[in-house]
Design brief:
Length: 127
């Protein structure tokens, strides 16, 4: 089992920045990739970004490219999501997830590729 705990959400004005953190514990040696998803009220959960745990290669949803950056610190078992130039449409609950299957950017854009999920952290961007 892997436990994930997100932090760093909050209220920010449009154009501002936030950095989300996701701390992993438990059997983290099995983790091959981690990702961030978000879900706004009344909408489906959508992919934001993913990272290969070992190699560090990254993948982003098109709408986040250039604004968001995913990174990881393997020594701290933590993955980060730096979010810049935030927009009101970025308002959502952001979830961290970890997968144990081999990392491929295409598959790790899909929620079904993940085995473990955090509880989520709310991000609200005011206009």
């Amino acid at each position: 089992q892997v436990q994930l705990v997100e932090s760093g959400g909050g209220l920010v004005q449009a154009g501002g920045s936030l950095r989300l953190s996701c701390s992993a514990s438990g059997r983290t040696s099995n983790v091959r990739g981690m990702g961030w998803f978000r879900q706004a009220p009344g909408k489906e959960r959508e992919f934001v970004a993913a990272i290969s745990w070992r190699g560090g290669s990254t993948n982003y949803a098109d709408s986040e490219k250039g604004r968001f950056t995913i990174s990881r610190d393997t020594a701290k078992n933590t993955v980060y999501l730096q979010m810049n130039s935030l927009k009101p449409e970025d308002t959502a609950v952001y979830y961290c997830a970890a997968g144990t299957a081999a990392y491929y950017s295409r598959t790790y854009a899909l929620p079904a590729s993940y085995d473990y999920w955090g509880q989520g952290t709310q991000v609200t961007v005011s206009s």
